[in-house]
Design a protein that fits this description.
Layout: H1 6-66, E1 67-72, E2 77-82, H2 89-98, E3 102-106, E4 111-114, H3 133-146, E5 156-161, E6 167-176, E7 189-197, H4 199-247, H5 265-315, H6 319-351, E8 354-355, E9 358-362, H7 363-373, H8 375-381, E10 384-389, E11 394-398, H9 399-415, E12 422-430, E13 433-440, H10 476-486, E14 490-496, E15 500-507, E16 516-517
Parallel strand pairs: 10-12
Antiparallel strand pairs: 1-2, 3-4, 3-7, 5-6, 6-7, 8-16, 9-11, 12-13, 13-15, 14-15
Helix pairs in contact: 1-4, 5-6, 7-9, 9-10
The chain binds adenosine-5'-diphosphate (ADP).
Amino acid sequence: MRVPGRRDLRRLSRGLRFRLTASYALFFAVLLIAIAGLFRERLATALENQVDDTLNDEWAAIKGGFLRITWDNDTHKYWADWYYDVDDPDEKTLALDIQKVYMITDQYGHVIQDFTTKEDQIRGFDDLPNTPPAIIQARVREALDAYKPGLPGKAFRVTRRASTGEPFRIRAGIIFAQNRAPGAVRNEPFYVALGVSYSNYAKILHDNSLVYLSVVPSALILGSLLGWFMAGRALNPVREVAQAAQRISGSNLSMRIPSRQAGDELDYLILTFTRMIERLEASFRQMRQFSADVSHELRTPITAIRGQLEVALFTAKTTEQYREAIFNALTDIDRLSQLVRALLLLSQAESGQVVLQKSRLDLRSVVEDLAEQYQIPAEAAGVHLTADAAPECVVEADRVQIERMITNLLSNAIKFTPEGGQVRIAVHPVNGDAELVVEDSGRGIPTEHLPHIFDRFYRVPGSGTAPAPEQGLGLGLSFVARIVKAHKGSIDVDSVPGRGTRFIIHLPAAGAASDTLELIRQSA
Ligand code: ADP
């Protein structure tokens, strides 16, 4: 796998920065467009209401008497006339405004008068007179149906575009003639439509939209720049942390990424990194210590063997002397092969897993056999070894591994118990499962070391500065813990310094659910 370089990291963070900015800009754009749309909608409604107000005023004026429709007996026709005070500037302006665009038809849609027929015609919505009579008739009917004396009456409002493209707002309704034609049963209704050009308002809307069209993109660009800047600021510490992390290598694992003391997610990440580096550092330290120990352990017996053989070769004269030299050399060779076995097991474990060979195993016979085997070393150490096994204690387990486990515990117990001490191994069924106890009256383990004794390569430091001669490689208990774990069991340790140690192992009768023994992981 390729380790990302500094340039890749910069590119990555730029990618993240870009994505942050893009989502910010997108959100900003949607927000701005939504606000602009809403505002335009409200403005349009307000403007339309304003036009309608003007039209309502005009309508009130014509109903109030500006427009009178009367039957003329001479011509036998209805006439529409305008009445207002020409000298009153307000009235005159209003009347002229009304007359810019209007149309009066009878109830059948025949035009009686419209602005195009007026002499001083002002150009307006000349499509108005072309309203189809059918529509007019329908509207008149509707207005008549809804008619109630004294009420404003039904108003029709539409917005239409003239052929010139100019928008107009139309308000139409009915007005009754002032008098009746001879024989008529009631005053005849007339259809009156008033129009007001909407173009000023449309222009306001249009200008408003133009403002938006120019403001929104600039606001967006500004917002995006701001977003880009802020995302850059937010990501800067990430880049710094990455650079600091890159400086840490196998040779300077004591270096740490400085915490920013901000208590944020980044500090949490830094803390996680720091913990990881601490674990790595501990592993590296253990490994280095292990290599040093191994080479030391290998060198000592080799030097001793060499010395003994040289002495024998050059100075030994009697068979007794030769025998002694060979005996001493053999003892050292024993230690060497023990060491090599441990290393072999370790390398085997490093390269993979040890497959468990499960079978029904009578723990009593295993315990008794091993106790017997260990009588000789126990006696040599002046330690009294006793075994106490219940008759029936069968579990499903791997014989070799269980023997290795007991061997490690027994040899530790004998090793760390001074002359005259006691070592006891016992196995009993407990609730159908097996409980194995190895206890001694030896030197015990100080409480502060108890949590670590199952770690690989961990050895309780001796009282002096040099490692005590009986110290092994610190592998034994780590193997024990892993074997127990592989058999789905549990291990507990009680120890009182100076008084002794007790290991209690609980093995389920049908344990060994796992097929393999994990020897690789650091903690059991
Ligand atoms: P080693 O190969 O050094 O014995 P272990 O993993 O078996 O390594 O044990 C780890 C350490 O725990 C030993 O260095 C020893 O100090 C301590 N220890 C283990 N068993 C006992 C015991 N029965 N009594 C006192 N100390 C013990």
